Amino acid sequence: MSGTLVREVESPTVVNVALTLALLRRGPGDPTFRRAGALTWRTSRQESGPVTYAIEQLTPHRVRATAWGPGGPELLEGLTALVGIDDDPSGFVPSHPVLTDGVRRFPGLRVPRTGRVLEALVPAIIEQKVLGVDAFAAQRRLLHRFGEPAPGPAPDGMRVFPTAEQWAAIPSWEWHVAGVDPSRARAAQAAARLGTQLERLAVRHASDPTSVYRGLRSIPGIGVWTAAEVGSRALGDADAVPFGDFHVAKDVGIALLGRRIDDAELAELLEPWRGHRYRVVRLVHLSPLARTERRGPRMARVDHRRI
């Protein structure tokens, strides 16, 4: 399908589209994401095909999306979930000064639901146990090498996420040249081979992601952290805590308790906010009131292209 499609949606509460969709950006230079003035540009691969879309905030309650490409109708059908209108934060009680300030400072922050599992899963696998700067660079190389040009009047250089079959067929040396070690490459390809089943599983269990997480974690190389990264983007799960992250427990502990904590203490600390635990993590990371340690252990950089 060619041509331009437009849809406008109204939210009963304030929604901040730019801040909500920022979660989908995988580092500077992500070829699937671009901010240009008031527009957020992004590409996606829907079940019906590739799509480029541009989203504009018209009022605090109203959003307009314009789409190009075969996947446009499908993308626009899921617009309210994508921009966070379907996310319900009404049961969230901040009950901590940092969180109270965050809710006041960032009204309209929501958890998006793209519905596209593989688009969240492959980048999360690439980001496992490496510095973000290296993971983002590896993903850029792979998308420029194997992604197709974005349909419609997209900004220069934008690419569409490859198909599951294309990810599964990438040769080992291409992963190496991109900077992805064999273990992560194997996990990404194992996930790609199950891509269709994972997407269907997410549709069947849209209101309860537990079964989706179980399916994800049955794939070798995918654990709690990776599944949560998918949950907070593809599934719209406001409770998806990325346990095992190099920074999350420390950052949340320092922000809310004034000291470093581990994952066990993080689970205990976040328990009163169950159902909204990822919302807490997101507010902490956005808050200027959250203190962070400027010195401390850092993950070592490893250039897997030279190994």
TrEMBL record:
Keywords: DNA damage, DNA repair. GO terms for molecular function: alkylated DNA binding; DNA-3-methyladenine glycosylase activity; DNA-7-methylguanine glycosylase activity. The keyword Cell membrane does not apply. GO terms for biological process: base-excision repair, AP site formation; DNA alkylation repair. GO terms for cellular component: cytoplasm; protein-DNA complex. InterPro entries: Alkylbase_DNA_Glycosylase/TA, DNA_glycosylase. The keyword DNA damage applies. It comes from the Bacteria. PANTHER family: DNA GLYCOSYLASE, DNA-3-METHYLADENINE GLYCOSYLASE. This is DNA-3-methyladenine glycosylase 2 family protein. It comes from Aeromicrobium fastidiosum.
